[in-house]
Structure to design on (401 residues):
């Protein structure tokens, strides 16, 4: 069984993969639905994704080997499920990596006030550093990710403490009138769903923890719960502070007329602390970096599984790191709109990848014994199926209306 420190590393990888730079924008998305619905929907999303994690872990345990969703599809269904799983998994991971390369580079350009023409060189440097990190074994990446994620939590805690001094309670935020409008929910649901996206690293952590079902359950339980707590605490504190100190700005948030830069500037003004701007940018950078590590780890392990067995281990990982870096680097440099189009459908892709396909495989497998008995519960199956359909419906409605 893995030691507590080893389990902590896995927990941080899962949580870091979830928490991306987009966490800063959550108050803008959730201003319209209020505090009660924000907490409830976060809890429902966390429960849905944790249960989907148990299904994915069950599939890995039944296969007696950590496998990506494509290989699991081959093992428990056949070639159609295998190729479909591989396609959507690689599509999502490449799109995420391109978004991280571009987003992190844009942040660095803004933070250090670099000329815009230097953006391409910053993207290249970010991609090169990422490629070098991905050559490290999982244990090495665990050692790199752990201090990064701890730093993220420490800075986020500092931000919340500073913001909490300016929070003004207002009961009107519990159930604001805008929460009754379906168009707000259509926009919010897919964003929150994708905020719990850690499904690209099941196979990596299953092998890392040698298929220890108890350790894996704890790693994914706490690793998914930490983002939920962070999301709720940050969103509630930011909404209360903004609504109490600048109601007109809050109304602009509800109408969708505020961007991240304006939000950061307003929080700096409310706290009367120019350092808040730096702290928020630091959280954003670290959040993107930890997400890059988690997604990159899953991407390189997936690619490595498809390489010929004759590759030496070091060459194996180095080649996978290059193949995992070059396509998103090119996208981030030349076709930035390509990944925004793909990410626009991230909710649909993730609903299929995280819920629908694993649910189909676990039902198709008809396993006689289960490592996690709750995975066989038909009521739970129906509940997460409905959740996936709701996410897909909201994503499609938001795209067309």
């Amino acid at each position: 069984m893995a030691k507590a420190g080893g389990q902590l590393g896995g927990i941080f990888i899962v949580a870091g993969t979830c928490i991306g730079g987009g966490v800063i924008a959550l108050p803008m998305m959730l201003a319209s639905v209020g505090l009660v619905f924000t907490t409830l929907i976060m809890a429902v999303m966390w429960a849905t994704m944790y249960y989907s994690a148990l299904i994915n872990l069950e599939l890995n345990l039944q296969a007696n080997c950590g496998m990506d969703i494509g290989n699991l599809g081959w093992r428990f269904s056949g070639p159609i499920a295998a190729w479909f799983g591989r396609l959507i998994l690689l599509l999502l991971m490449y799109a995420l990596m391109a978004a991280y390369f571009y987003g992190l580079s844009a942040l660095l350009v803004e933070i250090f006030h670099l000329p815009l023409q230097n953006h391409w060189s910053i993207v290249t440097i970010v991609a090169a550093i990422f490629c070098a990190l991905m050559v490290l074994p999982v244990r090495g990446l665990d050692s790199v990710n752990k201090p990064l994620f701890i730093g993220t939590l420490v800075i986020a805690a500092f931000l919340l403490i500073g913001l909490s001094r300016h929070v003004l309670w207002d009961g009107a935020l519990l159930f604001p009138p805008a929460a009754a409008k379906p168009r707000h929910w259509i926009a919010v649901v897919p964003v929150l769903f994708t905020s719990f996206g850690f499904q690209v690293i099941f196979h990596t952590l299953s092998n890392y923890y040698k298929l220890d079902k108890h350790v894996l359950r704890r790693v994914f339980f706490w690793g998914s719960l930490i983002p939920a707590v962070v999301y709720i605490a940050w969103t509630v504190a930011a909404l209360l502070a903004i609504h109490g100190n600048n109601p007109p700005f809050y109304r602009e948030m509800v109408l969708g007329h505020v961007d991240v830069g304006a939000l950061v500037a307003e929080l700096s003004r409310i706290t009367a602390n120019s350092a808040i701007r730096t702290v928020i940018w630091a959280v954003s950078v670290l959040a993107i970096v930890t997400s890059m590590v988690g997604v990159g780890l899953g991407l390189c392990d997936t690619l490595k599984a498809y390489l010929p067995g004759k590759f030496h281990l070091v060459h194996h990982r180095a080649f996978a790191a290059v193949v995992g870096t070059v396509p998103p680097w090119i996208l981030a440099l030349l076709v930035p709109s390509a990944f925004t189009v793909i990410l626009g459908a991230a909710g649909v892709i993730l609903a299929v990848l995280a819920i629908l396909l694993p649910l189909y495989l676990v039902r198709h497998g008809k396993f006689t014994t289960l490592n996690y008995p709750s995975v066989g519960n038909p009521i739970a199956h129906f509940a997460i199926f409905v959740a996936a359909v709701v996410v897909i419906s909201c994503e499609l409605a938001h795209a067309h209306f």
